[in-house]
């Protein structure tokens, strides 16, 4: 369906015109809107439609999180989310190729094993990026919507929307890269606070519910690092016979406290430094600017304040309406 939408109709019709009359055509699509159903009728004969799951149970294996951030801290939130999740494999979606290039460079500079995936890459480069994700050489792939359909990465348990999807279909296709074939997955939408309403609308149109949260801060990441370092030390094997003598010599020269300090410093040096995140209230009303309200603080109606025509308003009260241009107000 996407091939036809992208302008390959002539090529596909040529292929279909070249195959035998006696044939079986199977058509797969993650979503089946009316236009796709019409395509199926055009190219298939007496086709039976098979639904893998009920329409009201979309992405039942995916946990959706709406992460509110300040508009200038979007990349900080992405970095901290990657650090906190410590995912085996993550897809980060951006709208544009330029955004993919920028975010890939930023994450690489911070020590992440990351590859880009966008339409400007040659097919060999795309295949190489996907293979790096499959064999574990890369743990993060920053991609445009070219990776939103038809790609199955094993062990992909986290999808991050660095740019908010503009429609529910894009949201569903992107998010559907995780939570596949019975596996669980997490989908995080990075949403600047001024776009919270748009995010809620897209989720509502997609019939999805998301948990609202803030980005992980430095303290949360450092707590996680501490737990990981303790687990690493606890899981270490006892000294082998070939190491016993050297261990005894080392303990004779250096105290256990100093050895532990060296180990901690080495482990921390392996991990990217988390970004500073300013606290942001989850309640939509709490986080709003109060400049508009402050204009009316202590204000009273008087004869001087009334309009040039109309009744005296000395006994009036100030009030506000939460409507705007979208409501034609």
What does this structure look like?
This protein has 329 residues and is α/β, with parallel strands linked by helices. Helix content is 39%, strand content 11%. Strands 3-4-2-5-6-1-7 form a seven-stranded parallel beta sheet, with helices on both faces. β5, α7 (168-175) and β6 (185-192) form a beta-alpha-beta unit.
Set out the fold topology.
Layout lengths: L1 H4 L3 H10 L15 H10 L18 E8 L4 H12 L4 E4 L3 H13 L4 E4 L5 H12 L5 E4 L14 E4 L6 H8 L9 E8 L3 H10 L5 E4 L3 H18 L5 H13 L2 H15 L20 H4 L35
Parallel strand pairs: 1-6, 1-7, 2-4, 2-5, 3-4, 5-6
**Tally of DSSP β-strands:** 7
Instruction: Give Rg in angstroms.
Output: 27 Å
Strand content: 5-15%
Going across the biggest sheet, name each strand in turn. 3-4-2-5-6-1-7
Return the string of H and E elements.
HHHEHEHEHEEHEHEHHHH
Helical stretch count? 12
Residue-averaged pLDDT, rounded? 83
Helix content: 25-40%
Distance between the termini: 41 Å
Query: Main beta sheet: strand number and arrangement?
Result: 7 strands, parallel
- The computed structural class is alpha/beta
Q: Can you tell me the overall shape?
A: flat
- Contiguous low-pLDDT stretches (5 residues minimum) are 285-296, 303-310
Structural descriptors:
329 residues, 39% helix, flat, alpha/beta, seven-stranded parallel sheet, 11% strand, 7 strands, single chain
Briefly characterize the structure.
With 329 residues, this protein is of the alpha/beta class. The protein contains twelve helices and seven strands. It starts with a helix and ends in a 35-residue tail after the last helix.
